[in-house]
Amino acid sequence: MARSAQRIVHSEIGVKSWTESPPSCASARPPTCAACAAPSRPAGLPLVVVGHGLRARATEGPLAPGSAPALLDVWTRRYRCRACEAILVVVPAGVGKSYRYSRSAIAAALALWAYERVSAATVRARTSTAKTIGASSATRWASLRRWTRSALALFGIASELGTMRERAGRIASYVAAHAPIGTGSVPYDAFFGAAFCRPS
User: Fold this and answer.
1) Confidence grade of residue 5 (pLDDT, cut at 50, 70, 90)
2) One domain for residues 110 and 189
3) pTM
4) 72 forms bridges with which residues in the sheet?
5) Do 187 and 108 meet the contact criterion of CB atoms below 8 Å apart?
6) What are the tens digits of pLDDT across the range 76-102?
7) Coil, strand or helix: which one is 64?
8) What does the DSSP 8-state code read for residue 62?
């Protein structure tokens, strides 16, 4: 039997609010199926997108700008579409598909590295909960370059020109521009803007 398609659906709720007060099955249910666009609650008919359980997902990074990094198990909500059998996984706004770190943490990290010229080691200390670091990685963090190369999947923007740090700067600026209320601090605005960027 072929495995059902799985689609990630981002809620409007941020990671911090989601973990403090997880949404109910009804409140987190997507209005339509992300795979076939069938309405979840057709008028006068049974539900099409139905609850399909919970699944824990590890998410790492600060929960607010400047706060200490945390490692959390976020309980994501799963749904099954009766029309096409797709499995929908609803996650908080800041959670990225297949990424351990939250998109907010990644955006802020890129901004700190590119705009504030903070060292990679310091950015990692502000973003990661890891305490044990190999000697060869004491002064660098490969994740920053990996995230820069993956910006299209993370935030819907690709930057191919310039040094890796210059590319990270343009990505951070793009994400910061999506913050609901701009403060002028790129790392701060990028943290909140990440939830409003649509991955490609």
Assistant:
1) low
2) yes
3) 0.81
4) 59
5) yes
6) 999 999 999 999 999 988 787 778 899
7) coil
8) E
